Hints:
The protein is α/β, with parallel strands linked by helices. It is built from 8 helices and 15 strands. The protein has helices at residues 22-34, 37-44, 48-62, 78-104, 119-131, 143-148, 235-243, 288-299, and strands at 4-6, 19-21, 67-68, 75-76, 106-111, 134-139, 154-158, 171-178, 180-185, 195-197, 206-209, 229-232, 249-252, 264-270, 275-281.
Amino acid sequence: MPGFVHLCSAGMGGLETGRVELRHLRAFEAVARLASFTNAAEELRITQPALSRTIRQLEDAVGVTLLDRSSRHVEPTPAGRTFLEHVERALAELARGFDAVRRRAALRLGFSWLLPDPWAQRTVARFERTAGAAVSLVRTDDALGAVQQGRVDVAVIRGPVRGGVATPAVRIVHLFDESRVAVCSIQSPLAARPELDWSEVPRWPLVVNVTSGTTGPWSWPAGNRPETVVETNNFDEWLESVAADRGIGVIPDVAVRRSIHPGVRFVALRGAPPSPVALAVPPRARNAVLRRFIEAAVASV
């Protein structure tokens, strides 16, 4: 099992030992290096009585006294010094193994269109610097479904999660809100307007990305919703439909800072509710690399 060093009876002079856990070796190395139970317990973030029990368990397992507690400072016995050399080599080799695995690890970050800036760049840089792992960007039309199906480790989602806050297969971590702008074709009468009120949007045909869009008929109360809705299945279809003047769209203002299409114009949107940005993650993020990414994502807000 991971985390255990098995000591065979024959290899230990006939001792009926069970197994020595990795925590025993780390505890012994810390006490020997720091020459103090108090300092070692603080470094290991455990209580001193728990550390003393761990050392006694190790000494019982190997059948010899490893630490001399009679002097003012704790120090290894002759047997302890010999054992310490092997423990230090084993822990160093294990650390190198962890580093090698982390360098090969890649966290799969799903997104459906235009990652938020500068949050995305800050998060990736912070995560790769602190975690020693890389981020692999995965473009997917259904980012939420990709997390539920295990095709990505975490995903950026925008807008409210329709049909409920979460499902048993996903947890939502809210990050921040984005402002919205209207988008229309350069051929549209709206292209010459400096701004549009949120309440005016339903008067125009509305192009909606039903898979990952942030705005749709659901964004207005019943009775005030657009009469004409043009449904598309992804960002590219949505954008080309707006450019073809099939209707207007509403999108987070990150699009204004990108050259997304020469055939569209952005119109300031007054009174629009903000659009939430969140991470979709598995309900129990046991993976240490994933937890580090979530921490970097929240810290970069």
